[in-house]
Predict the 3D structure of the following.
Amino acid sequence: MGYEDKVRKVIPYTPGEQPRGEVIKLNTNECPYPPSPKVMAAVRGLDERDLRKYPDPLCSGLNSAIAEYYGLEEDQVFTGVGSDDVLSMCFLTFFNGHDPILFPDITYSFYDVWASVYGIPYKCIPLREDFSLDSSEYRKVKNGGIVLANPNAPTGIAEDLSIIEEIIEANPDSMVIVDEAYIDFGGETALPLLKKYENLIIVRTMSKSRALAGIRAGYAFGNKKAIKYLNDVKFSVNSYTMNTAALAAAKAAIEDDGYFREITEKVIRSREQLKTGLKDLGFTFGDSKANFVFARHEGVLDGETAADFAKRIFEGLKERNIFVRYFSRKVINEYLRISVGTEEEMRILIDTLKELI
Amino acid sequence: MGYEDKVRKVIPYTPGEQPRGEVIKLNTNECPYPPSPKVMAAVRGLDERDLRKYPDPLCSGLNSAIAEYYGLEEDQVFTGVGSDDVLSMCFLTFFNGHDPILFPDITYSFYDVWASVYGIPYKCIPLREDFSLDSSEYRKVKNGGIVLANPNAPTGIAEDLSIIEEIIEANPDSMVIVDEAYIDFGGETALPLLKKYENLIIVRTMSKSRALAGIRAGYAFGNKKAIKYLNDVKFSVNSYTMNTAALAAAKAAIEDDGYFREITEKVIRSREQLKTGLKDLGFTFGDSKANFVFARHEGVLDGETAADFAKRIFEGLKERNIFVRYFSRKVINEYLRISVGTEEEMRILIDTLKELI
């Protein structure tokens, strides 16, 4: 038998491809612009003598910069190696009950993977047909916790804050994690609710709007007690998760608010340009508030279904070095998730789609 | 009741203090020398346009450099955010059985913390009085896995490879993790055993001998199947753990073998100098093969026990801005763990100890 019967066997999350070289990469919702020049200056300015020493395990410099930016206290902030690390720690910390945790059937596909790897029971709640959230479904199920992405991925749909609040209010005995990875591109943040509810954690990432996917930095807001629980678990897994370069880079990114606003506005403009282009080509999609559009097309060839079309276009684009995201899972296999790039990239994409259709 | 009854409540690992400013820091086994100049050159040479993109989730460049250096295949290597991340992933992956895992009662104090956070039953096996490992104790207990640090921490004692092999051979149904964080400073690596045994994972860190504590890089060697299991779990927790800066820095550190050998020899020379100085002051200690010495003193003041002495000296040194490690746990509270610094730092330490005693 050997050691293998004691191995935790899992079906891991599949991240989007990371092709190198000259491609148009619209498959993992990165920012099409480089990070603030102050980020690279901070990294280049590191003292090599500091690299021999462990980084600050409390991430104080970064956490206080984040706290100041959002008008919170430093001990209401938790940082990690991308929002994936932060979310993973939240699952491990707050979802330790017996009842299943709840999240939508169509959402970030890492949620069920974390539940599985940590042995957390879960139940997927169907979205409405237009991909909107039915909050009443979260008010009647005894649960061990709730996770909501707002705006949701891969749909891009943002819910009104009142819907999110209804769910938090109806579940005082469960931690509700609101994953706001895409909130900077639209939608209403749950941040004002932190004062009102103890059972709320808000998770953010610097990989999208802060153009820092390569640095791996994410953060969470919560009340002090919840952040303390989160830190206890983090310090039971890895005391020093954020390296010296990440701490410096992420701090510089948070501090350069002007640059952040500038690139965010550019992405939002490109997104609206992309929507117009896709609409002209016969695609349909919800009103994305994220930095991607989740688009469907009835198909054009004889007997071609929406799913056939999505797959054909995905592959055709890839052959032309344009990477978008295609999911093979039923229902969403009728869609392409296209990250918002520069205006130039959006033009090339639309032209190539015209050719392919 | 609120959300708190579903919280995972843990007693986290306590890392050594990370004081900033002008201190002599001999408390977390960092390297007293900066990393290779090529490391900082690699970090400064990063293209800022790369920071906006996710890093390579497979860490191919780094893993192939490590594989080449040690004469292994790339898919026998796993990298993570320090050896703490690697060990934590190993616990989660390989210790999923029902029987308790085994490790010595005096060893790296993170092992029982990982076991607790992941709900893994464990049993501590006493070391002999001289802190050596009694391999027979590991041959008669039905277990779910074994973890051995060699050289051990905080004792610094290295075991002959034959002892380690006896344990691996006697437990074919358990994964044996050999934590070689300190192996570059002495002791025999278990690397040659990888060809013979499937149930072996060897874990290394770049925080000590490679002077890269601030970059957070650790790695593991194993057979391909075991590394695949480890990657499946890693990709179920966080797809991108190593950021772009860490990948570049760690690769440069591995590639500069000349510099690595030079600083390692210097640390070994300083260690032997430290041993001589401590011995002259009446300390006793085992034959450390690590970059620290675990030293005990009978005490000098009226009625002063070894534990009183250790605590008094720890505090006295701290007041003089010299940080060493003191553990309050019984038995080991009679010892000070002193990291090896530069020759100059060792001179100042010994002079200060003279004063204090």
Notes: Chain A has two domains: 15-33+258-356, 37-255. Residues 182 and 291 of chain A are 7 Å apart (CA to CA).
